[in-house]
Amino acid sequence: MSVPEARTPVEEHRHHTYVGTRIPWYVRLMWVAFWVMAIAYVITYLLPALQRELISPP
Known about the structure:
The chain is 62% helix and 0% strand. It has a domain at 22-58. It has helices at 9-13, 25-55. It is mostly helical. The longest helix has 31 residues, at 25-55.
């Protein structure tokens, strides 16, 4: 097995910098649509089912 190289954190960091771009508008739109649908699901299906199960379990 080889011995790992001894590097300082400063030397290691130079290879881990991230230079990104802005998130495109359609990706943001997809995230907004996802959260809207997730909240709609919880309100429409999950909360009524939880109420039925907690009030009168089978």
